[in-house]
């Protein structure tokens, strides 16, 4: 049972345009959400996070939106740059204090010049 | 400036062999984690530790063991390697649990034949 789903395995966006990566979840007990980025042959790196008490968090070119009623979050990258080409994972924490994250399958983002 | 260091980077094991994946961090983080990533899938938590001397099971602990005798080191032991353990393994650490930024090692690609 996949509690965190990234339904788009890949996404291709032109440089300078907006990239929107989506993530759906099923567990209403998730209280914290994170996005990680991964380049080939490297470990994931943290990008941005959001608590379930918020609906938006922004950090430079990256904004995460949370729609609790739809159990949906999205990551917006504006403007997209070639260095943003990577695999993006969303992850969720089930309850406060727990040390377990549930990860989605990842979306491969390709930024075309 | 090493961060999280994993060794080895690659390993081929025969069925039934054992090995230890090493992980060390120099950021004085209390929390450490072991994940595995299978092709096309997200990361799954194997074991985690909230401090020296304390470990707990994650989502997929069967076939693995860990220890945490120091803050810096968190080795992962495979006792009887099976083909199902073919995966990429990532060690990570964080200062205050999974809702904060985790720093990942570069990964160990393990093949069991």
Task: Please characterize this protein's 3D structure.
The complex is a heterodimer of chains A (113) and B (113). With 113 residues, chain A is mainly β. In chain A, 0% of the residues lie in helices and 54% in strands. Chain A contains no helices and eleven strands. In chain A, the strands form two sheets. In chain A, strands 2, 4, 5, 9, 10 and 11 form a six-stranded mixed sheet that branches. By secondary structure, chain B is an all-beta fold. Chain B is 0% helix and 50% strand. In chain B, strands 2, 4, 5, 6, 9, 10 and 11 form a seven-stranded mixed sheet that branches. In chain B, a hairpin with a 5-residue loop joins strand 4 and strand 5 (43-51). The chains are: A mainly beta (113), B mainly beta (113).
Number of strands of chain B: 11
Average the pLDDT over all residues of chain A and give the rounded result.
94
Q: Looking at the structure, what is the overall shape of chain B?
A: globular
Q: How large, in whole angstroms, is the Cα Rg of chain B?
A: 13 Å
Cα-to-Cα separation, first versus last residue of chain A = 38 Å
- Give the mean pLDDT of chain B: 95
Low-confidence stretches of chain A: none
Gist of the model:
The complex is a heterodimer of chains A (113) and B (113). Chain A has 113 residues and is mainly β. Chain A has no helices and eleven strands.
Sequence-ordered SSE layout with sheet pairings:
The complex is a heterodimer of chains A (113) and B (113).
Chain A (H helix, E strand, L loop, with lengths): L3 E2 L4 E5 L4 E7 L6 E7 L6 E7 L4 E4 L2 E6 L4 E6 L8 E8 L7 E3 L3 E6 L1
Parallel strand pairs in A: 2-11
Antiparallel strand pairs in A: 1-3, 3-8, 4-5, 4-9, 6-7, 7-8, 9-10, 9-11
Chain B lengths: L3 E4 L2 E4 L5 E7 L5 E7 L5 E9 L2 E4 L6 E3 L9 E3 L8 E8 L7 E3 L3 E5 L1
Parallel strand pairs in B: 2-11
Antiparallel strand pairs in B: 1-3, 3-8, 4-5, 4-9, 5-6, 7-8, 9-10, 9-11
